[in-house]
Amino acid sequence: MGRGELSPAALPRSFFDRPSHEVAPDLLGRVLTHGSVDGTVAVRLTEVEAYGGPGEDPAAHTYRGRTPRNAVMFGPPGHLYVYFTYGMHFCANLVCLPDGFGSAVLLRAGEVVAGLDEARRRRNGGRTAGSGGRRPIPDRDLARGPARLAVALGLLREHNGLDAIQEGSPLGRPRQSATMLEGAPADPASIRSGPRTGISTARETPWRFWIDGDPTVSPYRAHVPRRRSAAATSVGEAPSS
User: Residue 169 in contact with residue 181, Cβ under 8 Å?
Assistant: First the structure.
């Protein structure tokens, strides 16, 4: 997939201390790892979406201000904002800008570059590949889409607020830890941008970024109205409470 050598160096917190639409394209090719009692999975990011701050971006969870649900988005940069959507999926975001600003980047898709067997087991609901008569999930589909990416990484509600900036020595880190690595930044010539996926407000804002031609990038889907009782499938359009 043209990713070259992946650097294991951790990204500094200052990387995220910028507007989300600047951070988003720079995240392409970077690697997010998450370690748990089941093992560590690493995903090279190939598609992301940026969401702005309060009163600035009507598609953002923070548009109407701080609530108990979106409080992590107002916290220090580099933390994970994990939320539940449609009563069935988790989605993961990385917080941008300093305390109090309320901005993040949604992680939409990526390539599993470590922990392939564990990622596949998670995507199979805890079963080994091929069990129960199921077809094995192709590698490209393991983290292709925000919900699949969260499942592959093992990110759940309890990981909301997890710090993805691991400074200093890796010795002594807790089992439940996330780390953003430098990876191999995408060639700027390969990066494309366009409207964000599946939102009804600010739908033309070109803050979806992806690596052109990468097979793990998810298909673009325009918003289709539907009945729902939970938040939208992006960082956008949160309920007012």
Answer: no
Q: Are 185 and 28 in contact (CB under 8 A)?
A: yes
Can you give the pLDDT at residue 223? 65
Task: Please check whether residue 228 lies inside any domain of the structure.
Answer: no
Do the strands 7-10 and 191-194 form a parallel or antiparallel pair, or are they unpaired? unpaired
Residue 207: CATH number of its domain: 3.10.300.10
Residues contacting 114, CB < 8 A, separation 6+: 33, 40, 41, 42
Query: What is the full DSSP assignment across 169-221?
Result: -STT--SSEEEEEEE-PPPGGGEEEEPPSS-SSSTT---EEEETT-TTSPPP-
Chunk the chain into consecutive blocks of 10 residues (it has 241) and report each block's average pLDDT, rounded to whole numbers: 76 97 98 88 98 93 94 95 88 96 97 96 77 78 97 95 77 66 97 91 91 95 62 41 21
Identify whether 86 is part of a domain. yes
Owning domain of residue 184: 7-211
If one counts the domains in the chain, the total is: 1
Q: How many CA atoms lie within 13 A of 62 on its CB side?
A: 25
Closest CA to 20 of 77, 69, 71: 77
